[in-house]
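User: I'm writing a tutorial on reading structure tokens. Could you give me a worked example: one chain, its sequence, then its tokens, then a sentence or two explaining what the tokens reveal?
Assistant: Sure. Here is the example chain.
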Amino acid sequence: EQSGNASRAVQFYRRAGQRAAGQFVHHDAVRYLTRALELAAAGDLTTQYDLYALRAHVHFVRADRAAQAQDLDAMMALAKAMDDAPKVSDVWLQRAALAEAQGAYAEAIGFVEQATRTVQDAEKAHWDVAAAIQLGSIYWNQGDYLKADANYQRGLDLARVAGDRNTEATILLHLGALNAYYGPYDATKAISHQALDAARNLANEEGQVWASNQLGFLIVEQGDDDYEEAERALMNGLLLARKIGHRAYIAKLSSNLALLHDRCGRRAQGLACLNESLAIARETDSARHEAFAQNYRGGILLNEMKLDAAQSAYVQALSRFRAIGY
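And here are its predicted structure tokens:
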């Protein structure tokens, strides 16, 4: 930067930001990528777009929704200025993921539809897979498991036709998690183990967090055959979520650990887990995580015969569930 070679400085700060993000040092990653954006040439729209995309992903992992939305707005403006339809579609899908995280499911579905309308026929296959995955996630979080399953299955079929093994593995992770809610226990547990193995083979740390959470949750929710395995899975997932700084999953895993602690009679530990989950949910404006945490809290308090406190927690949970149409 001191040499006056702005282009080299941009690349330096970009690599530094990517390295920090890869090491899950999110504050440094944002700082380096912001400096790269400040130095990027005004006419180099592609570099600006790529830098915003990197920073937006860091904001997503940190659950900094406002900062992520600002970066997505900048990305959309740049993509349109470049007349780059795939980039425009990608931003629509990222907006859908953000809206889903905030419980705005109808808006999220609209964003997915925008993404698929934007691309041309030659590019449509890739975006159809991406849209199917996003729709599967939205319908799942909305509680419509049949529509979620149908979209994941559609995405899986398209990925297999395209020979895209990485995407196929990703969708299997989603299907394994979804089946925890309504599939046969033994079959779903086998799928859960397969999903975890697939994530490990791909060195996909976020996928390992996902699969560990769904395996532990499945055992706690549907079976009582091995609570020790459930605790191992949930604790491994939580440690990894803390390592990568994925706050949404820290909240989710903490809630599911609380459910396990309650089943095992460790109610004080369960309430401690829920305190962390609720704090993250409120800080990140996640109505869904807050609703489930309050629901689990009500259950623990009811088991402790603290009836007034339990009723208060259930009322708050019901209010949040209604707010997101769950």
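What the tokens reveal: The chain is about 85% helix and 0% strand. Residues 77 and 121 are 23 Å apart (CA to CA).
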